[in-house]
From TrEMBL:
<dbReference type="Pfam" id="PF08448">
    <property type="entry name" value="PAS_4"/>
</dbReference>
<dbReference type="InterPro" id="IPR035965">
    <property type="entry name" value="PAS-like_dom_sf"/>
</dbReference>
<dbReference type="InterPro" id="IPR029016">
    <property type="entry name" value="GAF-like_dom_sf"/>
</dbReference>
<keyword id="KW-0808">Transferase</keyword>
<dbReference type="InterPro" id="IPR000014">
    <property type="entry name" value="PAS"/>
</dbReference>
<dbReference type="GO" id="GO:0016301">
    <property type="term" value="F:kinase activity"/>
</dbReference>
<feature type="domain" description="PAS fold-4">
    <location>
        <begin position="135"/>
        <end position="233"/>
    </location>
</feature>
<dbReference type="InterPro" id="IPR013656">
    <property type="entry name" value="PAS_4"/>
</dbReference>
<protein>
    <submittedName>
        <fullName>Signal-transducing histidine kinase, putative</fullName>
    </submittedName>
</protein>
<keyword id="KW-0418">Kinase</keyword>
């Protein structure tokens, strides 16, 4: 055994030779020094015959090696009571002892450091996967820059805006000169002066509220960019402003058709609204259209609009529900166009406010449009009331005018009667007739006074009601 002992005597790992009967043949120096110390009782758990002659345990790696046909076996032994952790490798040798028993080389080592590195690598990999999952799937724009404007990393949202393969490229090569100069100034302030900077940025029809903050990575200061997508918020803000302007129109505009035209014009200025139309049916049928596709699709037939009018409910769906010969569907060349139709209700009029838009509407945007349709319905009712009021004034004027004519005609007839009574009739009969004529004239004078008061009332109503 001399050659083996020379090889493993100063080996830094615990090493011993055991035969197939679990008899200890050799232990190296480090194992001999510790066998009565921290390893006391451990070897007996691994190979009992090596220490006290007891029978070996069922999970003995040497037995496992023999059972599997003399193959190398690895085994871990942990003693939590003494905070001991040993890894074991049992390797069969092509050597036998003097009793013709097969020898096995057994090596023990402390796997703490290797296991710790393995755990750290696993934790790092897990953290990297978490970071990458968040980084790549967040709806916000995220990027990391050096102080020189070089892109260290960029997520998919930033790639959609600036182009693919951004890592390693300079922001000056990605953005137009005027924009890149501003960004370089922002990045310099963040990295060199540790300032936090916020600004708005638009790209491909999306709006971002961008924040740049300093971060330290690998011992160097970088600029972290986070761009929160505020497109929907911007859209709601723009739509609310449009709603306010339209409400002012509703209060001030006195012509119904002109009001509806201005409403359509205001709404069609909204970025993703391709076509806006208002249709009224009933006694005062009317259609008003505005938007980029107004000229081509102004007289189109729309089933969605008909459903909103017929059932009095808001309807929103993609244009692919329309027939293949749908004018708007063919003009847009896309099934990503949506149709939203909201009912308009007044006493004698019904209709719909219909918007053809790219992308679906949020609940907030739909609620704003429903508020708008309610305002338009209120305005239509106001127009109806105004029409009724004007007709009532006309009727009153006609009645007053006719009453004045009838009063004059009656007075003329009474004058004739008075003349006849005075000339042709004498005595008591004449006096009675003239007395009744005077009574009738007094009644007619009261009617005339009422007509004058009616004229004053009519002027007051026209002025203040």
């Amino acid at each position: 055994m001399e050659p083996i002992s020379q090889v493993f005597e100063n080996f830094p790992l615990y090493t011993m030779l055991v035969d197939e009967d679990h008899s200890l043949v050799y232990m190296n120096r480090i194992l001999r020094n510790d066998i009565d110390g921290k390893l006391k009782g451990v070897i007996s758990r691994y190979c009992p015959d090596a220490s006290d002659g007891a029978s070996h345990p069922q999970d003995c790696p040497l037995c496992e090696s023999i059972r599997k046909g003399y193959v190398p076996v690895k085994f871990e032994l942990r003693d939590f009571s003494r905070n001991l952790w040993l890894a074991t490798a049992v390797c069969p040798l092509h050597t036998k002892n003097q009793n013709e028993k097969r020898l096995f080389l057994c090596i023990f080592w402390d796997p703490h450091e290797a296991k710790l590195n393995e755990l750290l690598k696993g934790e790092l990999k897990r953290n990297e996967e978490i970071y990458r999952a968040i980084f790549d799937n967040t709806p916000n724009m995220v990027g990391i820059f050096t102080g020189d404007g070089v892109i260290v990393d960029a997520n998919a949202v930033m790639a959609e805006c600036f182009g693919p393969d951004l890592a390693g490229r300079n922001i000056k090569d990605v953005l137009p000169k005027e924009v890149s100069e501003k960004w370089m100034n922002y990045i310099a302030n963040v990295v060199e002066r540790r300032r936090r900077i916020a600004f708005e940025f638009s790209c491909n029809g999306r709006h971002y509220l961008v924040s740049m903050v300093p971060v330290d990575l690998a011992g160097e200061r970088h600029c972290l960019l986070i761009g929160r997508d505020v497109t929907e918020m911007k859209h709601r803000e723009m739509l609310l402003r449009t709603l306010i302007r339209i409400e002012m129109l509703v209060d001030s505009e006195k012509d119904r058709k002109k009001l509806l035209e201005e409403v359509c014009s205001e709404l069609s200025s909204f970025p993703n609204y391709l076509l806006v139309r208002i249709d009224l049916v009933g006694k005062d049928r009317l259609s008003v259209v505005s938007g980029n596709l107004a000229d081509a699709a102004g007289d189109m037939h729309c089933r969605v609009m008909e459903r909103a009018i017929r059932h009095g409910v808001s309807v929103s769906m993609k244009v692919d529900v329309c027939d293949e010969n749908c004018t708007l569907r063919n003009l847009s060349g896309s099934d990503e166009i949506w149709i939203t139709s909201l009912p308009l209700r007044a006493d004698g009029v019904s209709g719909a406010l219909t918007v053809f838009h790219s992308g679906s509407l949020s609940q907030e945007e739909l609620a704003i449009l429903e508020t708008l349709s309610a305002d338009i319905s209120f305005a239509l009712r106001a127009f109806e009331l105004e029409e009724i009021r004007m007709k009532a004034y006309e009727k009153i004027e006609d009645i007053v005018y006719r009453s004045a004519i009838l009063t004059d005609e009656i007075k003329n007839a009474l004058t004739v009667i008075s003349g006849i009574a005075e000339l042709k009739i004498s005595g008591v009969e004449s006096a009675k007739i003239l007395e009744q004529v005077d009574r009738i004239k007094k009644i007619l004078d009261e009617i005339d006074n009422g007509w004058i008061e009616s004229e004053k009332l009519k002027k007051f109503l026209k002025k203040y009601v």
